[in-house]
Write a structure and sequence with these properties.
Structural class: mainly beta
Largest sheet: 3 strands, antiparallel
Order of helices and strands: EEEHEE
Strand order of the largest sheet: 3-4-5
Helix content: under 10%
Shape: globular
Number of helices: 1
Strand content: 25-35%
């Protein structure tokens, strides 16, 4: 198993379906790119759009790449800064809304 510095725990699904397709897994921890921050998530929300996406109801309108980490809403603490980030510091408490795009990687959902 990879070290705690390179992985994170996430709810993930690898196919469309009901809640039984969700599993808790260790996944690679992303590194923030230029202009990005990495948030150590302490709370996230599940909204109607999350289960509709997971069940595949919106797959034509909003394509997904698997594996998918659900939830667009998160709150936590900044744990790393990408190049060029200003106005934020490691340790800042933040909340975020992230609407994934087909080009997003699963790691972008952190």
């Amino acid at each position: 198993m990879a070290s705690a510095d390179t992985t994170m725990t996430a709810a993930v699904y690898n196919e469309f379906g009901n809640s039984s397709v969700l599993s808790i897994q260790q996944v690679p921890k992303p590194t923030p790119g230029p202009g990005q921050v990495l948030i150590a998530v302490q709370a996230s929300g599940v909204n109607p759009v999350d289960w509709k996406l997971r069940e595949g109801y919106l797959k034509e309108m909003m394509p997904q790449a698997f594996p998918t980490i659900p939830s667009w809403d998160a709150a936590g603490t900044i744990s790393a800064l990408g190049e060029g980030v200003s106005g934020f510091a490691v340790g800042d408490e933040v909340y975020a809304y992230h609407r994934p795009t087909p080009e997003s990687s699963p790691e972008d959902k952190v």
